[in-house]
Amino acid sequence: MGAPEDDVVRIREMVEKCLRLVLPLGSSLPTHDEDWIESGLLDSMAHVEVLLCLENAANCPNAFNRIGSAPITTIRSAIEAIRSVASSAAEGQSQRTERDTIRIHRTDRQAGILGWGIALGTKQVSVDQVEHEFDLPKGNLKARAGIESVCRVAENQDEVSLATIAARKALQMAGISQQSVDWIIGASETFLCFPSLAASLHTALLATSTCRVLDVGGACVGLLNCFAVANALFANGRVDCILIVSSDVHSRFLSPGRVDGEFGGLFGDAASAFVLLRHVGAGDALPYSIAADIAGCTGTFSSVLRIRLGVDGTIILNFEGDALAHAAIDRIDRVISDLETISGKSRHEASAFAIHQPNPRLVDIFLRRMKLPHEKVPVVARLHGNLGASTCGVALSMALDNHAIKPRSERGPIFVVSVGPGMLWAGTVLE
Amino acid sequence: MSELLISEITRMAAGLCVIGLERHKEGYSSLRPIPHGLTAWPQFPYYRADRMSFDLSLSPGVTEHHCEDRRAGNPRLVDSVSEGELVGCLKQAEVADSIKNLFGCDVHPSPRGGAAVYVNPVDARRSVCGCKINSVHFRFYPEKIRVALALESGETLDSLPVVDRDWFAFAKRWDDESQSRLAGFFNWFIVDQIISSPIRFARIGLARPDKDGLCWLMLDSLFPLPKAEWVKEFK
User: Nearest 10 degrees: CA dihedral of A8, A9, A15, A17?
Assistant: First the structure.
């Protein structure tokens, strides 16, 4: 966290924001030392909601049911409690509670994104063709989901070949040899083989034998999970360069006859790659780096999308499109709000939003709800389909193409947000 | 006269809310007896698993989401069954295999940033339903308890207010203890007792619409009910 006085101002804003959410519309905020309960401002149910909201906003789950001393019933006590939790976490003291560990949400910005690249399936397939293949009524996908085409791999392409192309582009842009990579972290929801995606990519790139590999799950959240893992790995002072890759070939997995077209027809094939390097640049030459990140899992909505393999290799799919759409939009909205609080950066300052795009219609709804201009969200799903973890990757890559070339003082942050089955959610602010 | 097997006694602002099971050919269904001229029972000197008789009549203001409401008078204790028998009857009443099926509609995340969920009253088809659970986690706040439940469906309800009178009274005896000690005891010893019980079962209720018109989910009952012998395990 920043200077102590900055913290107090930021935390106070956080506390007031949580109070405003619970107080009746038009009520004035309590004074610094006004007791929320005794003054009759909040009933005990609303009080719990404020505490939960604060835990959420400060990204310190279970923190306030742990504090056995003075109850948090004033703005002052709330600020002090949050500062105490944050300072304990920063000092590395044990803050383990029954379910969670306090997380330091503002990161140390140890590494910057120096290179990025994407690889799209080379076949552009029109939505008419997709509807025909899945035996859907003409106009179904276009009208309901807003998709115009999807990109699919050619016969000679797969997850590894896409990942290799994206990785080479990213390494080239960063000016880094594959021999300098300390870790390769991969995410794929369709590459269900061993050696895994990261190991296969290690071989394909001819990385050194001491370059470590790691595969990370999370489906559509996979890329953001990779970023979180990479950021943590940089705590090891000997790690200087990490290559992150996402790659998915949905067209061979979610194919006609295996899943309904209203689900399978939404997906395309692609890969994305990012090179993170320790301590590079200064001042206006600083590259984008992770300024804040949050993530979690909300099991309440775990049943709206479930995919598993049956014993005979068939795909068993449970897909409640409307419920998933509502839950996803709500969650993305909330993640962005929380990222604003944590990072101190407003959505209106952002240069771009690299958000997951299950389909273009949801992006439209999201933009309307958030009152954001269309040009701030790179178009991915409309032309390429839902690319799984690579949706965020391709969107982020496009955003970096536009904004990373600008001096740091002339560009805004990039919000990267995704949701996935579980319901997993994650958000990162790059600055 | 109608006979109800008392299944829920829950705390609400105006007093106590009571729900009982009415037997019919196919099993049981839940009814909520409400005293004439009141919105809740100021006192209710009976217990869950008591079989009681009431004079019941259709409540004039009954809504589709709180379709169980009945005006009730002349409550009389008939006899009692065991807790296990009560849970057996609850499993023959309203039971859902998913969150969506609890009230026949989707739930929505709190717009206030917490992990509580609500339903829109116009969507809900009932206001109480049972479900099988795999795990539970307690959280304590001043004067309030919240639980997280893992349902057998693989879904979770992460922040349910506990309105169950018995669980609340059980925890209340440790009012002077720190919340962290209390949470430690509940989330290790008590949760072990619940998880290992053959009658573990939860009943989820819907609160009446709040000032914003939202019906919040809450924990009406958690079985097994707290046991006096567990108290001595608190160290």
Answer: -170
